[in-house]
Amino acid sequence: MRAAAAWLLALLAFPVQAEWEWSEPVTLGTARGAASFPHLESANRRGVAVSGDSVGVAWEDSRDGTPHCYLALKPLAAPAFDAETRLSAAECYTPVLIAVNGGRFVAAWEEGGRVYARVLPDGERIALSTSDAGQVTLASRADHVYAAWAEQAGRFRRIVVARLEVKENTVTVNTAKPVEARPPANEQGWPALAVRDGGGVTVAWEDRRYRHTVPMVSHSRDGRSFATPVRLTDHKSGAVNGLGAGTGAMRPTLTVWKRNRVAAVWLDKRDFLSGYDVYAAFDSGKRRFGRNVQVQDGFGDNMAQWHAQAVGDDDGRLLVLWDDARDGTPDVWLAEWNGKSFGDNVAVPGASGPGAQTDPVATLDAQGRLHVVWLEQDEAKGARIRYARGTPRHLESSRAVGR
Question: What average pLDDT score do residues 102-116 get?
Answer without folding.
Answer: 96
